[in-house]
Amino acid sequence: MGLGKVGTCARYLGAQLAAPGEYKNELTCRLSAITIGWCRFGSFWITESSYKMKRLCFISNVQSAGLSAGHVKPYLKSQTDQIDSRLCKYLRVAMIGKAHTVETTFAAHPPLAHTYIHRSISNEKVFKFWKIALCSIEFRIRRIRMWQSFLRQPHQHVQVNAAMFGKLVFEADPLDHKGETTTQAHACLRMLEIDINILSDKVPHWGNT
């Protein structure tokens, strides 16, 4: 990047927040960063390199670019699905033909013609093959770890804890009589509640956590 030029797709520069509070611009940058991380390795992905090496390079250079700071954004499911779709697209390429199956059927009577039926494996199986979790699961785990670090040393995170769990005199109560968040609660606090409820239940997810 030359002097005076600005790059918006680099990692760790912070999220792009639009005036209405949307993250569409940031999502576009994350998708572009995934593509950049993939293209940086050129034809490496379609070589006969080891499974372990490909997986490590993908996680560190492609997946991490898409997940960068995503755990602090209230992404919608449709937005996380876009990230997973882009990642799955490249994971299929790296499988070099293993992402689809071929079935051969033979005719019962002469002439014994045969037919090849090609089927692509599901996205779930692609993520399981590479032992990579969906980005929504990664975001949940990272958010819970972040809050654990905040609450483990509350004296160092007084302002954050007060903003999330506290209440000003003119604000509505963020919790109801059952201790659950209300619609007036902070978006991050509501995400934390959803994360805890989902991860505490035995809900099947793609990939490994």
Shape: elongated
Please count the helical segments. 7
Described by strand count, sense and barrel closure, the largest sheet is: 2 strands, antiparallel
Number of domains: 2
Number of DSSP strand runs? 2
State the end-to-end distance. 36 Å
The fraction of residues assigned to DSSP E strands is: 5-15%
Give the proportion of residues in helices: 40-55%
**Rg calculated over all Cα atoms:** 22 Å
Helix and strand element order:
HHHEEHHHH
Describe the fold and architecture.
With 209 residues, this protein is mainly alpha-helical. It has two domains: 8-96, no CATH class; 133-209, no CATH class. Helix content is 47%, strand content 7%. The chain has helices spanning 24-39, 51-67, 77-94, 123-130, 135-152, 158-165, 187-200; strands spanning 100-106, 114-120. A two-stranded antiparallel ribbon has the order 1-2. Helix 1 packs parallel to helix 3 and helix 5 packs across helix 7. The longest helix has 18 residues, at 77-94. The protein is elongated and about 85 Å long. The model is unreliable at 202-209 (pLDDT under 50).
Concise description?
The chain is mainly α and 209 residues long. Helix content is 47%, strand content 7%. It has 7 helices and 2 strands.
What tags apply to this protein structure?
7 helices; disordered C terminus; 209 residues; elongated
Topology:
Blueprint: H1 24-39, H2 51-67, H3 77-94, E1 100-106, E2 114-120, H4 123-130, H5 135-152, H6 158-165, H7 187-200
